[in-house]
């Protein structure tokens, strides 16, 4: 029979103890990370729960001076928030409407301006051209130079060239006048649109400033609760796995040791291997024998020392009297019992 293994270590208990140690370490770390604080702003107190599972409490108390300033700030910001609300209500009929720029000065249609400048500049030129042409015609005929001659044509061409130069200057002046009129109207339109946007944007900016300044903040700048503490769970699974491995190792070592003792004691050698179902049960090999029960066959069940360890089983001589086929006699005269047969 396989010997009883020694009491295994309480690995599950050790795992639970490790979990408790981890929890205690986390609590200690929390205490170090969250000290009680006293400063000019007031005080901060860290209080653990009455029970281990209770949530801790962090209490902040402002000094009387800071509390008065805080209440005053809250009141002022509340008034600013109220003004912002009034402004928002007043703008309900404005915000959301499509912007209308139809009233702003328009840009375009400068051909008429250009033509007016040209006509104004060419009016006197055309009048002078007619006078010069008539005078030149009279002077040339009086001098005996008739129309159709080269001299007559050259004289008239000079007068026409002067008129063309005047026309070119009038065209340039007309273009400049149209461009100036376009730039002037464009700037007037930009100014008008900017004024419309300003009328719409100023109230919105005022409301934004009022509302952003009405938010309440806590001036109590002291450390808060630590967020870096983690409590590791108890490694119960690992403990159970280690326990199973420990028991398997004890069982395998016990069986191997028993086989080795039997082979060494009875000199069986490699040619006469003893099946593991047999166990030495000769009374002569046992000591400290104590009867602890009765087998259904009517023989005793004993606890005894054999080969240096404590075991439980029957006596081979008693079993031979009631079931001889379950007992084997070794060459050296010692008895073995086949426990698988009964």
Task: Give a brief description.
With 342 residues, this protein is an alpha+beta fold. The chain has helices spanning 11-33, 64-90, 111-142, 150-212, 236-266, 316-322, and strands at residues 37-39, 42-47, 57-62, 278-280, 287-294, 300-306, 309-313, 327-329, 335-338. The longest helix has 63 residues, at 150-212.
Task: Characterise this structure.
This protein has 342 residues and is an alpha+beta fold. Among the domains are: 111-212; 275-342, no CATH class. 54% of the residues lie in helices and 13% in strands. It contains six helices and nine strands. It has helices spanning 11-33, 64-90, 111-142, 150-212, 236-266, 316-322, and strands at residues 37-39, 42-47, 57-62, 278-280, 287-294, 300-306, 309-313, 327-329, 335-338. It has a three-stranded antiparallel β-sheet. It has a three-stranded antiparallel β-sheet with strand order 4-9-8, covered by helices on one side. The protein has a three-stranded antiparallel β-sheet with strand order 5-6-7, with no helix packed on it. Helix 1 runs antiparallel to helix 5, helix 2 (64-90) crosses helix 4 and helix 3 runs antiparallel to helix 4 (150-212). The longest helix has 63 residues, at 150-212. It is elongated. The two termini are 13 Å apart. The model is unreliable at 264-276 (pLDDT under 50).
């Amino acid at each position: 029979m396989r010997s009883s293994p020694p009491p295994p270590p309480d690995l599950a208990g050790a795992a639970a103890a490790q979990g408790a140690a981890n929890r205690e370490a986390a609590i200690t770390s929390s205490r170090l990370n969250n000290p009680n604080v006293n400063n000019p702003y007031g005080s901060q107190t860290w209080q653990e729960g009455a029970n281990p599972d209770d949530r801790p409490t962090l209490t902040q108390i402002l000094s009387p001076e800071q509390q008065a300033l805080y209440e005053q700030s809250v009141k002022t910001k509340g008034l600013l928030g109220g003004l912002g609300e009034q402004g928002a209500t007043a703008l309900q009929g404005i915000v959301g409407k499509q912007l209308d720029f139809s009233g702003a000065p328009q840009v375009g249609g400068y051909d008429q301006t250009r033509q007016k400048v040209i006509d104004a500049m060419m009016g006197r030129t055309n009048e002078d051209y007619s006078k010069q042409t008539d005078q030149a015609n009279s002077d040339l005929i009086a001098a005996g130079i008739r129309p159709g001659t080269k001299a007559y044509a050259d004289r008239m061409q000079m007068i026409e060239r002067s008129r063309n130069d005047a026309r070119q200057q009038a065209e340039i002046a007309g273009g400049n006048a149209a461009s100036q009129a376009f730039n002037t109207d464009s700037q007037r339109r930009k100014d008008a649109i900017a004024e419309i946007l300003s009328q719409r944007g100023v109230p919105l900016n005022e409301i934004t400033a009022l509302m952003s300044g009405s938010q309440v903040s806590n001036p109590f700048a002291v450390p808060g609760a630590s967020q870096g503490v983690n409590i590791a769970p108890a490694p119960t699974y690992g403990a159970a796995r280690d326990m199973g491995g420990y028991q398997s190792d004890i069982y395998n070592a016990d069986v191997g040791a028993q086989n080795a003792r039997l082979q060494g004691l009875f000199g069986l050698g490699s040619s006469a291997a003893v099946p593991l179902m047999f166990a030495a049960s000769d009374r002569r090999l046992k000591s400290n024998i104590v009867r602890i029960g009765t087998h259904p066959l009517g023989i005793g069940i004993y606890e005894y020392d054999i080969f240096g360890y404590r075991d439980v089983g029957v006596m081979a001589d008693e079993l031979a009297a009631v079931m001889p086929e379950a007992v084997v006699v070794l060459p050296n005269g010692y008895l073995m019992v086949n426990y698988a047969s009964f």
